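Annex B. Sample input.
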Amino acid sequence: MVKKEMIAMLLAGGQGSRLGVLTSKMAKPAVAFGGKYRIIDFPLSNCINSGIDTVGVLTQYQPLKLNTHIGIGIPWDLDRNIGGVTVLPPYEKSGESEWYTGTANAIFQNLEYMENYNPDYVLILSGDHIYKMDYEVMLDFHKESGSEVTIASMPVPIEEAKRFGIVITDENKKILDFEEKPENPRSNLASMGIYIFNWRVLKEALVSMADQPNLDFGKHVIPYCHGKGMPMYSYEFTGYWKDVGTLSSYWEANMELIDIVPEFNLYEEYWKIYTKSEVLPPQYIAADSVIERCIIGEGTEIYGKVYNSVIGCGVIIEEGTVVRDSIIMNQTKIGRNCTIDKAIIDEEVVIGDCVELGTLPEKENDTRPDIYNSGLVTIGERSVLPGHVKIGRNAVVSGETDAEDYPNGILDSGGTLIKAGE
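Annex B, continued. Sample output.
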C-alpha cells in the first residue's frame, strides 16, 4: 500500500441548476470560464500548485464533458502511476445501484479509494468555485493548531451570512459553534466548503452517520465531530473567492478578469491555472476590427468590434458586428452586422446575420425570473438563431430555432424559447 500524507476529494457532481441552460447538458464544474478554462481547472490547479498529487474527482450529473476534459490528468501533471487524478462516478454494487445522495455520502461511498492511500489527512473540495489557494498553508495551520477538522472560512457581509454554514470562533480560531444556514447568524465567518480532516476522524464520522439520508458535511458530519468534542479550527482565507452559482455571478466573475487591475489575475507566473488546451492556430484580428479590454482565446477570428468581453477559443465574429459586455464561449459563430449586448452565449452556437441581442427595454423573465435576470441574454449550447431577429434582455434561447419561432422577428425581453429535446 502506498502512503500519502494528504489526498484531495473533489466534489464535482453538482448540476448547478441556477445556471439555467448552461448546465442543461453538463455539470457545473465543466462550464467554460475566462476564455479558455473550465471551472474545475481552478481547484485542480490549486491541488498541483500545493503539491497534492492524488485527487479523486466525484462526478454524477451529466459527466461526459467533465470526464473528457479531465482525461488522465495530463494538463495538471496528474497522470501518475501512483496517485494522480481518478474520476469516481457512482457505481452499481451487488444487488443495488446507489446514486450519491449528499456531499458526504459521495465521500462515504469512496472509502475504499481513500483506504488505498492510507492518508494522514483528507482535503475535501468543491469543484465549482473560482479562487487560488495554497492548501499546504492550510495543512500547516491544521497541524500547528492540533486541529482534527479544519474548515476554511472567509468573512462575508452579515446580510448574506444566512446563505452559508457559519462558524463561531474564539481568539485562537478554535470553532466554538457551527450553524448551517442560520436565520439569525451570530458571526459573518462563512464556511467555504473546504475541509481538512484527520483521516481516522473522517472515517469514523462517515461510518457513524452513514444511515442519514442525504448525508451532508454541513448538516451532519461537522455537527457530529463538534458534538464529539473533537478540536476544530477555522482557517481564515483572505484572497479572491467566487461561487459562480448564478448567471449574474458567473457573468461578473468573467468581467472581473478584464478589469484594468484584475482582482483575480490569470497571468501570475508562480500560480498557473492549467487546462486541457485544444490544438488551435493563433487568433486572427482583421485590419478593420476594433478590440478594447477583452480576453480572446486562441483560434478566434475577429472581423467586427468587441468591447469589454470574454471571448473563447475558435470563435468567429463577422464584420459589422458589435459585441459589448458579453461572454462568448468556444466554437461559436456570429454572423455579420449583429449587435450583441450583455449576453452569455454558450459553446458551438450559430447566430445568423443582422441579429440583435439585448437591445430591447428590460422586462422580467416569464418562466424563471430567479435564474434569468440582471438584464442578461442567455443562449444555450449548440443553439441556432436565424438571421434578422431581435432578442430582448432577461430572455433565454436554447435549441435549433428558425424564423417561425420569432413572431414579427422578435423574442421580447423576458421571453423563453427552449425547443423540445433541449
